[in-house]
Amino acid sequence: MKKITIAAAAAAIAVAVTAYASPYYALHQIKTALAERNAEALAAHVDFPALRASVKTQLEASMARSIEATAGSGNPLAALGQSIASAMLGKMVDTMVSPAGVVALVNKSAVSPQADADGSADAPADGARKKADYAAGYAGLNTFVVRARDGNAQEGALVLLRHGVWDWKLSSIEIASAMAGR
Question: Distance from the CA of 157 to the CA of which of 87, 118, 138, 147 falls in 20 to 30 A?
Answer without folding.
Answer: 87
